[in-house]
Amino acid sequence: EIVLTQSPATLSVSPGERATLSCRASQSFFNNLAWYQQRPGQAPRLLIYNVFGRATGVPARFSGSGSGTEFTLTIDSLQSEDFAVYYCHQYDSWPPAPTFGGGTRVEIK
Amino acid sequence: EVQLVQSGVEVKKPGESLKISCKASGYNFSFYWLNWVRQMPGQGLEWMGKIDPNDSDARYSPAFQGHVTFSVDKSTSTAYLQWTSLKASDTATYYCARPGIEGEDAFDLWGQGTMVVVSS
Questions:
Q1: DSSP characters for chain A?
Q2: Which chain A residues have a beta carbon less than 8 Å from that of B70?
Q3: Are the beta carbons of B106 and A101 separated by less than 8 Å?
Q4: What is the pLDDT of residues A51-107, one digit of tens each?
Q5: In what order do the strands lie in the sheet containing A70-75?
Q6: Please, how many CA atoms are within 13 Å of residue B19, restricted to the half-sphere of its CB?
Q7: Dihedral angle at the C-alpha atoms of A102, B12, B77, B111, nearest 10 degrees?
Q8: Could you tell me which residue, B103 or B19, shows the higher pLDDT?
Q9: What pLDDT does residue B85 have?
């Protein structure tokens, strides 16, 4: 299976600053990568699909980039509602099974 | 409204059986595979597998193969996740999720989650 490693595990950021989250894959795949936000007690919410695509209703301050084995989620000018856990997700063709990264918690500095 | 609504909290004993549900509304249930995702307490997301509501073709992650069963009832647009013998390690929140963006398998629609507690 493709293992996704997210870093850092926790990111402390002040409101208004930029957050950069990393997702590294154990093997290369073509663009089938998504990012989700999960707030406490809530289901995950799709932010980014196909590395770059922004899901409906997602603010423009969220952007995705990368290719091959290195992917990044950038959140510009963090707002209070952005403090949450973020997961990357690869959904390359079956097999292998889709997998999620371990998550990055973005907390208030 | 397009949504997935899951059944409520379950508290069970080890060895008991359980079937939880995920009811779809607002879209054609047969058009999209329905996925199941586990989240153990304080942990990350794990993909369990998926089922095609159209013909009940199911794909299981190797980690869950043989321990859970997926099924659907097209007449009620409901998907099910079933255990025949629960273990304490099955304690988790279980989400159903649907990929709805054309050509993409990212999950743009999620149920609210069903918390399952297995304890003696």
A1: ---EEEE-SEEEE-TTS-EEEEEEESS---S-EEEEEE-TTS--EEEEETTTEEPTT--TTEEEEEETTEEEEEE-S--GGG-SEEEEEE-PSSSS--EE---EEEEE-
A2: none
A3: no
A4: 999 999 999 999 999 999 999 999 999 999 999 999 999 998 667 789 999 999 999
A5: A4-7, A19-25, A70-75, A62-67
A6: 8
A7: -30
A8: B19
A9: 97
- Residue B33: which pLDDT band, with cuts at 50, 70 and 90? very high
Stated as kind and residue range, the H or E segment containing B36 is: strand B34-39
Strand A4-7 versus strand A19-25 pairing type:
antiparallel
* Widest Cα–Cα separation across chain B: 45
Touching check for A27 and chain B: CB below 8 Å?
no
Chain A to chain B Cβ contacts (< 8 Å): 62
- Chain B contact for A103 (CB, 8 A cutoff): yes
What distance in Å separates the CA atoms of residue B101 and residue B114, rounded to the nearest whole number? 24
Tokens of A14: 């002040």
pLDDT score recorded for residue B102: 79
At residue A94, the pLDDT reads 67
**Chain B contacts of A91, Cβ < 8 Å?**
99, 104-106
Tokens 């159903």 belong to residue? B96
In angstroms, the Cα distances linking B5 to B2, B58, B80, B94 are 10, 21, 12, 12
